[in-house]
Design a protein that fits this description.
By secondary structure, the chain is of the alpha+beta class. The chain has a domain at 2-128 and 209-332. The protein is built from 13 helices and nine strands. The strands form two sheets. Strands 2-3-4-6-9-8-7 form a seven-stranded mixed β-sheet, sandwiched between helices. A two-stranded parallel ribbon has the order 1-5. The longest helix has 35 residues, at 130-164. The two termini are 40 Å apart.
Amino acid sequence: MYLSAFIHRDALFEIAERWFCGRLDPGDARQLTELLISDGFVAAETIRSVARRLLTFLHGTPFSEERVRTKGELRDALCRGNGEHTQRAAELLARYQEKPDYYYREVPVNGVMCLDEAQRVCGMYRLKRPRRIAEKAQRKLARWLFAAVQTRARAMAETRARERGIPLVHLLTPLSEMSDEFIAAEEEIAREIRTGAFQFDRAALTIRDVAGIKLVGPDDALAELEVALHEVPSMRVVDRQAFEGRYRATSLVLEVPWDAEAVCRAYEEDRAWERYRGRGVDDACLRLGLAPLLAGAASTLTVEVMLTTFSDLVESELGRGLHEQRIIAQRDNREYTGYLPMNVEFLVEYLFAVAFSPKIELSGLPIKLWGRYLPDTLSSHIRRLYGLPDPDLLD
């Protein structure tokens, strides 16, 4: 995975690539911990700065910020309305107020709501949670691996066709033989991964929406903001996508610089080292400040900015575009369900768990891409990172 919202994204990709190949370096756990501390803090400070700047341009009025940790807090705030919502939005809000527990209220969120003077939602910003990053990495790698496996399987079929002296289109292959070829191609790629001969495509595995901002306003104001963003010298729009299905929104991926001096100052003023205690790094090292952890950092990072109206925001949170139902659909409708993509998700989730745990040394990797595991394996090893025993009725 290549997380473009992280300033040490190259180093993180190299660690992940090694782990995918089953190779653990002695300093990996500590490097991951320090990387998640520095890159997480920089991403949070940068996204806060960008969100405040864009919200001020969009609304031109003062706003306050409120930390949110569950979707229920955001959805309760939406019920305050904003004076511009449609009849459809009003109906959705009424349904939510009637049966709030039906709407996944306890789903955890790592974000901040932005509220106008009437305490109505005018925007928000968030950093994607590690579990969602792992799932997205799994989907991206699954699509890429699926294409690679299909290419290998097709090559096997072409070889059989040549041996029989017929064009591939005239080759009739029993379903069982096609399945065997797919499995053989998958095993071939697994062997190449194990030996380090397989090359992971950084571009195909890039995730650009780890840091996200959502701006809420009328269509004309949002259009004006989008035009303005293309003219800001310090920001570069690197991707644009318009959603017109279950709800409307425009996604812009911005490449933005980050201010090292401001970030280091914020780390000191907020006594940020206190929040990183318990991650295995000495308190004395954390108190030295953020600067020692910034060596080799990229000068820019990416932020996804979603532009949406209040009614479309309600639709995405409570209606046809209900976010949690889309997540469930993504989990249930995977095109490629082999062991390779599942192990990618396990391994990425374990990678983040290591970075947040008190462990800064590992004796080995519990997940290999070419192995076979159940979710219980992952949860057991994550518990061990925190020194928690597995529940066992025999003990």
